[in-house]
Amino acid sequence: MPLNHTDQVNLLKDILSNQQSDCCGSVAECEQLERLIKSLMVNADISQNVRPILEEIYIYSQNGKNTADLDEHINAHQDQLSSWVENIGEFS
Questions:
Q1: What contacts 24+ positions apart, CB below 8 Å, involve 15-24?
Q2: Cβ neighbours of residue 2 under 8 Å, at least 6 residues apart?
Q3: Is the separation of the CB atoms in 40 and 54 below 8 Å?
Q4: Cα–Cα distance between 48 and 11 in angstroms, integer?
Q5: Which residues, 6+ apart, have CB-to-CB distance to 71 below 8 Å?
Q6: Domain span at residue 18?
Q7: What tens-digit pLDDT sequence spans the chain (92 residues)?
């Protein structure tokens, strides 16, 4: 059963929240973020206001999966993670 866009947004928020609170993550989480964002970007139900945030998160996840030290990458983006979770929450 495919996830609807609300479920996708909630999963996106959960992954980002976990990375923020745990200060660590996995390459698999970064890949999951990318898949979620790709799916959300083609969804007509997603507000144009949230698209720039999704693009930022996509770049973050791409850089994260390709970095030598993912935990340091996550630590370096704590402010953005907090902002993204808050902003995405307003659109879900």
A1: 16/57, 16/81, 16/84, 16/85, 16/88, 17/81, 17/85, 19/74, 19/81, 20/74, 20/78, 20/81, 20/82, 20/85, 23/71, 23/74, 23/75, 23/78, 24/70, 24/71, 24/74
A2: none
A3: yes
A4: 19
A5: 23, 24, 25
A6: 5-91
A7: 677 888 998 999 999 999 999 999 999 999 999 999 999 999 877 778 888 999 999 999 999 999 999 999 999 999 999 999 998 877 65
pTM: 0.91
Q: Extract the tokens encoding 69.
A: 């030290």
Domain count, the chain: 1
Give start and end residues of each alpha helix (H) in 1-92. 5-22, 27-41, 51-66, 70-76, 78-91
CB atoms within 10 A of CB 60: 23
37 is written with which tokens? 């964002």
